Amino acid sequence: MQTLFTAEQLRDPDIxxxxxxxxxxxxxxxxxxxxxxxxxxxxxxxxxxxRIYLIKDMLEQGKPATEAVVRHVDxxxxxxxxxxxxxxxxxYMHLVDHARAYIENTxxxxxxxxxxxxxxxxxxxxPWLFRLALMGAGVARPMKGLxxxxxxxxxxxxxxxxxxxxxxxxxxxxxxxxxxxxxxVTKARVALLAGCAQQVLSPxxxxxxxxLLTRIGxxxxxxxxxxxxxxxxxxxxxxxxxxxxxxxxxxAWSAEKDARGLDAIxxxxxxxxxxxxxxxxxxxxxxxxLRDKAATVAGLTRDITEFLTEFGYAPTRPKPDLTxxxxxxxxxxxxxxxxxxxxxxxxxxxxRVVEPAExxxxxxxxxxxxxxxxEIAGQLRDRKLANIRRTKPDLIAAGNIGCMTQLGxxxxxxxxxxxxxxxxAGGPIPAALADRG
Length: 437
Prior knowledge:
This protein is α/β, with parallel strands linked by helices. The protein has helices at 7-10, 13-24, 36-41, 48-61, 67-74, 81-85, 92-106, 111-123, 127-140, 152-163, 197-201, 204-215, 231-234, 239-260, 270-276, 279-282, 288-300, 304-311, 330-335, 341-348, 369-372, 374-389, 401-407, 417-424, 431-434, and strands at residues 178-180, 188-192, 218-222, 264-267, 301-303, 323-326, 352-354, 395-398, 414-416.
């Protein structure tokens, strides 16, 4: 693709990076075949190729984003399915992330939307504040029918109330900064991202992760000062907040590595893992100490299923008579290219693993997408669940809390992959299965 950036524009490292990706695109259109929004809407501008043209024109002109550009970029899920399909290797993730930051700096959204995005960006990354917000949503849920109209704001408010869980599990002590020693001989030492929203929505995921790792001889540290990975802010174009949260993690994990060593940084929320593995790119223009630390942290990061595959996993319980529909989160299969490890581990644990049709398509969660674009997200959720039900599973397994929230509560038990692996290796039965009886 030909670009027309000036020499002055190309001195900006972000524009230079965007220019590289734009010139890599050969506008072949392969990406349209696997883009969820193009599949639903049939609009070229709601495909990766269409958005690339819009982003190119916006950046070349160097003018504030227009309403049309914002509308079509906002509809992008950042599912990254297009990156799996692209024969030219365009890093669409970097391109659309830059476009979102540019939009945030140049476009004046309506007041209600600005307020909502700021509230989401400030609330969800802080577990204590997110817990309070969910408590408030629980009180407000019975009044959902009183929200009038079909405006986007009204739809978003109803979607947020629908997504809020009926009950909030109590906070878990295992997520506080501390060291969880290995059982017996210590074979490895890792840091675990405790996360933010996941702590509130499903603390059992971190509990299962720590139980399983320590049981197989891995010391697990929850580093002091580590927190939200920054991805939620990053994908809303809130650049400074995202970088601040990312830097806090980089410094916390680097201190742990320097003090006692780390063999890996474990992430059990694949959306977070995709962002942390990109810290090297995000901090490529930082001063050398921070830049080098970011690259090291990115290189150490492993999804929990990657680590268990490399380290070794063996079940200790008899095979359960259960069929698991494995939902491959977009951030795991497209963002991190981790595709076989979760299925292989589940099969090794004794489950019958089935894969639904259209497994490459997003479920519609995508961070805050199911709150900001509820209609499209709802259509994608229904399509995903219909495909899952056709496999006639006993339960659904996934490796990302966003997907679990999006697909849960629809009649089938929704369980994190690590909870199933922990159960089959001596841990307790996951609550979703125990409740089922």
